[in-house]
Amino acid sequence: MMQKVLGIINLQATTNNFQGLTTYRPIASLAYGSRYRVIDFALSAFSGNGIKTVGMFAPKPYRSLIEHIDNGRYWGLDRKIGGLNRFYQSDDEQGFVGSEVSHFYANLDYIMSTKTDDVLITCGDIVWNPDYQTMYDEWQASNADVMVVYKHMINNDSNYNKGTILSVDESQNVITFGINGGLQDEIDYSLSTFFMKKSLFEKLVREAVETTRCRTFQQIIENKVDELNIKGYEYEENVYHIRTLEGYFKANMGLLEPTVWEDIFNAEKHSIGTKSKDEVPTYYGEESVIGNSLIGTGSVIEGEVHNSVLSRRVIIEEGAVVENSIILKGCIIRKGVKLTNAIIDKNSDIGNNIQLHGNENYPFVVPKRTIMR
Amino acid sequence: MMKKEMIGMILAGGQGSRLGAMTKAIAKPAVPFGGRYRIIDFALSNCTNSGIDTVGVLTQYRPFQLNAHIGVGAAWDLNHAKGGVSMLPPYATENDAAWYRGTAHAIYQNIDFIDRYQPEHVLILSGDHIYKMNYDKMLNFHKETDADCTIATIEVPWEEASRFGILNTDAEFNIEEFDEKPKNPRSNLASMGIYIFKWSVLRKYLVSMEQADIPSDDFGHDVLPKMLADGNKMVAYPFKGYWKDVGTLESYWEANLDMISPKHELKLNDRSWIVYSQSFDYPPQKILPTGSVKHSLVVDGCVVGGTVKNSVLFPGVVVEEGAIVEDSVLMANVHVPKGCVIRKAIVLEEAKVPAYSQIIGNKDIALYMDESEGE
């Protein structure tokens, strides 16, 4: 049972602007996988694992999050007891803006007042379907102060450059934390997901604010690697921690692979909730040709779509061909358009016969509300 | 206590027995429709979109699915602290326990509920119809004409008029005569079973007719003719647009397939009049490399690896590679494995079709369900 666990979503400030995709929104509120926003996976993981008390800490820009998350009802987190509390960082936390740690510090009263004993802190930009219960049981059994979840991977994905990596000994004790500079062929990548006692969390945050210059929670843990007993937990299923535009592109395309789909959407696992938009069913026209694609509701597909992920209310006119692309909400792809390896941000209108071709690793991005003729 | 100008009462207790096995386990208003809706969604959404925030849903026949579907009404924005949606099944009092004997009797039994809101007017609806209608416009008409009762009507083709309850009116739409299924119709204005009453007037009739032991179970048969005979002002409200009462399996099937076209008269896609429904956390719809979908509606949770043509797929339908689905309606979570051919058929919710099955309708629509469903 995980009722005694406080879930914390720590939305780290975005430094990479994804060629404009994250100018107005954090990675967590990027549209993803045809009908979601990235943060749906973090919220669903909490509610799906029976965690009923959740605090979400968000730096700017957060307008799109406020709109999407509402009071948490789409994830069953609109509770009288516990439920989702949202902490949007304000400008008057002077001198500390952008600091996760001071944001926690400013809201320690809330954190300590929840009827919980333990803390599970994670970020809002991971796509996965984790079994927190199993992780929690393992942490409890280990008697470790902290357990951090990591993913072992081949180091060939630019998305994970400069990300936090760690090393563990044979009994899964974390020895070091570091930054992925590309030297190693294989890495243990930290998924920024930690289990610890709430009392320890409080102590770490207080100490950090009063005696160190740590701005991120990860830094606190890194500073304490010799002092605390930190265990690693290797996550074996498919997971995407979206850090770059290329990573976002790959994470979308990944859903088209059956093994990834199984790891994330298997009916035996928790379902992924999202805000309903009451869209009509998708219409597929007489001449439509579709293969290996995810399509959003409210869309009208008259043309050709292959290996692509389309959001809600996308119109693909006859004779248009979309390949290996992501098309976000409300776009119109007109007659004769050819798209490959493109990301079309929402409400854009791509005029007749325009051709846009990106590279698999460097998709062509069209910013939102672009009208191209 | 909380005064409302008008509240809605949706009659949702009917079985819809002409739909056969489809309504064996659920009431007709709960029958799935159009890929992601249940029939009652249209009336509920019309209420919300017309600004009505207090709705009673009168249930009787197999109400479980309806209760689960409507819940607290949040999907229709009807989860209000003051008003909102209330499920109103028959109930017992210290004196007796009575089933609803008819449309008017169901309202009579809920006079206390309606009185709580002290409405000027009461809107009586059927939960069986597929249409978009602005009840606020109808209310304005009702108020402008100062009618005691306003009945929504639609022009039907003359040759079909003898199947409907026809209203004969003067040029100002004042009702002069009710003509139930007339052999020789004098008008083609058919009643849609949608009424707005001045509540004070309707209340008086329901109570006095019950007390005087005058038959008053049914609006069309008992109460409306009596009100007209007594000289109340009753007017017909002319509605224009799509309106369908899917009475039979055939017309249900046809109405679903008609809905496929984005040019359908109902304009489901119009975001200024959204038809709301309960939503579920299905994954996105996925068309596999082997899949082909032509002139069809598909929704979240569907996985298509086979061939789908001129069909409506509800949430969670799986059509495996090598299966063929044509001219059919597959309700939620239907599984169609390889080798199946489904043509001119309706497959009911949750049905797991065995591999290599042939479910093919000819003159009649084929209806398929899992065996346990029909028991």
Task: Break the fold down into its secondary structure elements and pairings.
The complex is a heterodimer of chains A (373) and B (375).
Chain A: E1 5-10, E2 31-32, E3 36-37, H1 39-48, E4 53-58, H2 63-69, E5 83-88, H3 100-106, H4 108-113, E6 118-122, E7 126-127, H5 132-142, E8 146-154, E9 164-168, E10 174-179, E11 186-197, H6 198-211, H7 217-223, E12 230-234, E13 240-241, H8 245-254, H9 258-265, E14 282-284, E15 289-291, E16 293-295, E17 300-301, E18 304-306, E19 309-310, E20 315-316, E21 321-323, E22 326-327, E23 332-333, E24 338-340, E25 342-344, E26 349-350, E27 355-357, E28 364-366, E29 371-372
Parallel strand pairs in A: 1-4, 1-6, 4-5, 8-12, 14-17, 15-18, 17-20, 18-21, 19-22, 20-23, 21-24, 22-25, 23-26, 24-27, 25-28, 26-29
Antiparallel strand pairs in A: 2-3, 6-11, 7-13, 8-11, 9-10, 9-11
Helix pairs in contact in A: 3-6
Chain B: E1 6-11, E2 32-33, E3 37-38, H1 40-49, E4 54-58, H2 64-70, E5 84-88, H3 103-108, H4 111-116, E6 121-126, E7 129-131, H5 135-144, E8 149-155, E9 165-169, E10 175-180, E11 189-198, H6 199-211, H7 219-229, E12 234-239, E13 243-245, H8 249-258, E14 285-287, E15 292-294, E16 296-298, E17 303-304, E18 307-309, E19 312-313, E20 318-319, E21 324-326, E22 329-330, E23 335-336, E24 341-343, E25 345-347, E26 358-360, E27 366-368, H9 371-374
Parallel strand pairs in B: 1-4, 1-6, 4-5, 8-12, 14-17, 15-18, 17-20, 18-21, 19-22, 20-23, 21-24, 22-25, 24-26, 25-27
Antiparallel strand pairs in B: 2-3, 6-11, 7-13, 8-11, 9-10
Commentary on this structure:
The complex is a heterodimer of chains A (373) and B (375). Chain A starts with a strand and ends with a strand. Helix content of chain A is 21%, strand content 29%. Chain A has helices spanning 39-48, 63-69, 100-106, 108-113, 132-142, 198-211, 217-223, 245-254, 258-265, and strands spanning 5-10, 31-32, 36-37, 53-58, 83-88, 118-122, 126-127, 146-154, 164-168, 174-179, 186-197, 230-234, 240-241, 282-284, 289-291, 293-295, 300-301, 304-306, 309-310, 315-316, 321-323, 326-327, 332-333, 338-340, 342-344, 349-350, 355-357, 364-366, 371-372. In chain A, the strands form six sheets. In chain A, strands 1, 4, 5, 6, 8, 9, 10, 11 and 12 form a nine-stranded mixed beta sheet that branches. Chain A has a six-stranded parallel beta sheet with strand order 14-17-20-23-26-29, with no helix packed on it. A five-stranded parallel beta sheet of chain A has the order 15-18-21-24-27, with no helix packed on it. Chain A has two domains: 5-264, Spore Coat Polysaccharide Biosynthesis Protein SpsA, Chain A; 283-372, UDP N-Acetylglucosamine Acyltransferase, domain 1 (3 Solenoid), CATH 2.160.10. The model of chain A has no long low-confidence stretch (mean pLDDT 94). Chain B is an alpha/beta fold. Chain B is 21% helix and 27% strand. Chain B has helices spanning 40-49, 64-70, 103-108, 111-116, 135-144, 199-211, 219-229, 249-258, 371-374, and strands at residues 6-11, 32-33, 37-38, 54-58, 84-88, 121-126, 129-131, 149-155, 165-169, 175-180, 189-198, 234-239, 243-245, 285-287, 292-294, 296-298, 303-304, 307-309, 312-313, 318-319, 324-326, 329-330, 335-336, 341-343, 345-347, 358-360, 366-368. In chain B, a hairpin with a 3-residue loop joins strand 2 and strand 3. Chain B is globular and about 65 Å long. Chain A binds chain B through residues 33-35, 44, 73, 255, 261, 264-265, 271-274, 276, 278, 280-298, 300, 309, and chain B through 34-36, 74-75, 260, 262, 268-269, 274-277, 279, 281-300, 308, 312-313.
